[in-house]
Amino acid sequence: MSEPKTPTPPPAGDTYKGWVFKWTNYIKGYQRRWFVLSNGLLSYYRTQAEMGHTCRGTINLATATITVDDACNFVISNGGAQTYHLKASCEVERQRWITALELAKAKAARMQAESDDSGDDFSPSSPPAAPGQGGVSQNSEVQSALRTLGSKVEDLSTCNDLISKHGSALQRSLSELDSLRMTGEAGDKIRQVTERATLFRITSNAMINACRDFLALAQAHSKRWQKALQAERDQRVRLEETLEQLAKQHNHLERAFRGAAQANATADNTSAAGPGKGEASDDDDDDNEFFDAMEEAPEFITVPADPQFHKSVDIHSPYTLIYSMNQESPSQELVPLKKRRTCISDKPNYSLNLWSIMKNCIGKELSKIPMPVNFNEPISMLQRLSEDLEYHELLDKASKCQSSLEQMCYVAAFSVSSYSTTVYRTGKPFNPLLGETYELDRRRESGYRSLCEQVSHHPPAAAHHVISNRGWTLRQEITVASKFRGKYLSIMPLGTIHAIFEKGNNHYTWKKVTTTVHNIIVGKLWIDQSGEIDVVNHTTGDHCHLKFAPYSYFSRDVARKVTGVVMDKDGKAHYVLSGTWDEKMEFSRVMQSSRGENGTEGKQKTVYQTLKAREVWRRNPLPEGAETMYYFTDLALTLNEPEEGMAPTDSRRRPDQRLMEDGRWDEANSEKQRLEEKQRSVRREREREAATVEEDSLTDLSLKSAPHDSYQALWFERCEDQITGEQIHIYKGGYWEAKDCGSWEGCPDIF
Questions:
Q1: Please, are residues 713 and 730 in contact by the beta-carbon 8 Å criterion?
Q2: Could you give the count of Cα atoms lying within 13 Å of 178 in the half-sphere of its Cβ?
Q3: Which of 45-49, 351-355, 396-400 has the highest mean pLDDT?
Q4: pLDDT value at 52 more than 90
Q5: What is a single cellular component term in the Gene Ontology annotation (predicted)?
Q6: Which end of the chain has fewer CB atoms surrounding its CB within 10 Å, N or C?
Q7: Are 284 and 246 in contact (CB under 8 A)?
């Protein structure tokens, strides 16, 4: 019978099949048989059709020995009555079988050893499981996963040994080839080298397949373990917060007790210890005692916190989740966390010819062109700016770093993470009205609170200030310039972002890259980010250069790729960052750098030798049904949720935006036109007043050169940035105090 012309592929799993010649007797010699290797057992049949009913023999590889006779022959024996003398069609085919057999033997030996020790997993000395058997199930699952992972590691070890073995043989053959003269045996040696090179390639492929199996398995279980770990972390945080509140309550009661004892030294001990009487004995100092107790809270917990956070707690807002005391009942219970919404109304399916509107906008500044809400998403630019805090935990981690260079990695990852929310978001946010504000108070959940204000309308500019009790401050003023080029729309954010950390007083700055919306005329809209970011630590001189690669149809690189290098002030590289702006970022420590080959532009490339990469950031999954909710993230879904105590200028009070979110787009368009016309009327009135002042003060050169629109922001003041030298708006304070008192008299009527 003829042999198949196409060689059998190398083993990629636990089963391997194929035709092999088996020695039968001296009369018939070697006969062709169908061999099947599965689950550590090697079986053979006369034909493939016999597999369903007649097995001619089986040998257990766990206790078998495998030896090689010559180029094509090999022997398998279990030391007893079973011995198979086998012959492959060629040396390459024989090596495929040897590799598969050795892997199967190693796995079978491990399984047998684990079977012998399986009784120890649940021995009588082990602690009993929970009544619901949840502990047993979880333990079994973990044990099974660990066994499988261990098995894959052993496969890698076996393949490594085989590669070393065949690599040595190949090296010897190459050495012999080098020492040969051009004689008749040169052809045989060359053939031998070729065969051994083929064997080495086959074994390498087997190892690669084993690596792939290991990686796939590790990734499958990694997600489950990450969720379990996150649940444990959340539980720990909740317990720590509860402990903090209990410590505050205990401290307050202790102070109340001491105050009552001093006021009435002759009173009964039971009365003096009563919480109600102790509180009543010193009503005038109640507030001071309460805040003192909060300042001393770090004595009872190890969670880092800013003492000023406790001093500025808002005890009036129902959305500020603190543990507050009642004068009559100091044992007030904890206020539960506010449950925020997880969905909004589905986006209506309105058809609109985008080109019929955009064709008249080519080359113009889009902020000056009225657009229907059909192109919008139901949040304002101020809320979109607040979405930069989606991954605020990167700054939390950065504030704890001991090394400024490692801290730079987290800051750089934070600068990239803000773009992950834009990958599917082709809708345009509402242009804020002049004087419009947006607050995001998440001190209880995340330790920060944020305030944005639209400080200029032409050009549109928004000032943003964030303070966190976890040791960092973020501020920025962003002016958005946009141009429509026919096929695509370019959005260019102008302005500098500042991140300041209390620990080490490190001050970082960076700018945003250009966002491009493609397929404006025809096709499905899609977004790309391109450009470069320089993150600079002005305290130490460290810097990180990030490059956002633009999408190219002909590029072999992964789409949306971001790369960067963290260097100290002397230009020495310490970390390399890589990833994508829509998925994840990793960083690796540089151990050594050297100059490599010249690149495509003639520049010499730098080669960095790094340690294993560590994941620094990964995008959160979108909520279920996000495609019908403007592809909003979990945070974005809550941004326009109404809350009590908001300023009258807050974006959540904007009527056209609220109507759009509710799906009433026709009414939203009418309301949007009304608001824009009202804003234009107010601006014309300001310009008339400014012109009158100018006419009355012609001799005053400073007034004569003043701009017509003399608008001044309410919560931010204009000044020169000491770091960049730019004219920017800095938060001057007063907003949160006004909210505490409910005093909004200074707010303009913009809605």
A1: no
A2: 6
A3: 396-400
A4: no
A5: plasma membrane
A6: N
A7: no
What is the predicted pLDDT for the residue at 92? 84
139: left (phi over 0), alpha (psi -120 to 50) or beta: alpha
Rg of the chain in Å (alpha carbons): 36
Structure tokens at 130: 């929970």
pLDDT value at residue 750: 92
| Mean pLDDT for all residues in the chain | 79
pLDDT-based confidence at residue 606 (cuts at 50, 70, 90): confident
Asked if residues 50 and 32 have their Cβ atoms less than 8 Å apart, the reply is no
Closest to 299 in 3D by CA, of 238, 254, 333:
254
262 Cβ partners below 8 Å, 6+ apart?
none
Cα first-last separation, the chain:
90
Q: Which is nearest to 564 in space by CA: 580, 582, 541, 583? A: 580
Q: Is 133 left (phi over 0), alpha (psi -120 to 50) or beta?
A: left
Pairing verdict, β 460-468 and 448-457: antiparallel
User: Which residues contact residue 704 at a Cβ distance below 8 angstroms, ignoring those fewer than 6 apart?
Assistant: 694, 697, 698
DSSP 522: S
CA torsion, ordered 128, 130, 131, 137, to nearest 10 deg: -100
Q: Any bridge partners for residue 437, and if so which?
A: 453, 650
Q: Are 107 and 99 in contact (CB under 8 A)?
A: no
> How far is C-alpha 23 from the chain's CA centre?
60
Whether the predicted pLDDT of 433 surpasses 90: yes
pLDDT in tens, 114-134: 665 544 444 443 444 444 444
pLDDT, tens digit (0-9, with 9 covering 90-100), for 466-512: 999 999 999 999 998 888 777 888 899 999 999 999 988 999 999 99
Q: Is the pLDDT of residue 458 over 60?
A: yes
What b/e sequence results for 575-595 when a residue is b if at least 16 CB atoms lie within 10 Å of its CB, and e otherwise?
A: bbbbbbbbebbbbbbbeebee
Rounded Cα distance between 480 and 154, Å, is 56
- Which residues, at least 6 apart from 447, have a Cβ–Cβ distance to it below 8 Å? 309, 396, 468, 469, 470
% the chain with pLDDT above 90: 39
What are the backbone dihedrals phi and psi of residue 114, each rounded to the nearest 5 degrees, phi first? -65, -35
23 has which bridge partners? 30
Place of tokens 């078998």: 64
| Helical ranges in 320-472 per DSSP H | 354-358, 381-386, 393-399, 404-417, 443-446
> At CA 672, angle to CA 667 and CA 674, rounded to 5?
100
Contact 149, 155 (CB under 8 A): no
Of 23-37, 234-248, 381-395, 532-546, the least confident = 234-248
Of 100, 87, 101, 98, the closest CA to residue 3 belongs to 87
Rounded CA-CA distance 407/410 in Å is 5
Please name the amino acid found at residue 53.
H
pLDDT of residue 178: 61
Mean pLDDT lowest for which of 43-47, 565-569, 700-704? 700-704
> Is the omega angle on the peptide bond into residue 493 within 30 degrees of 0, that is, cis?
no
Q: How many CB atoms lie within 10 A of CB 315?
A: 12
Q: What's 374's DSSP letter?
A: G
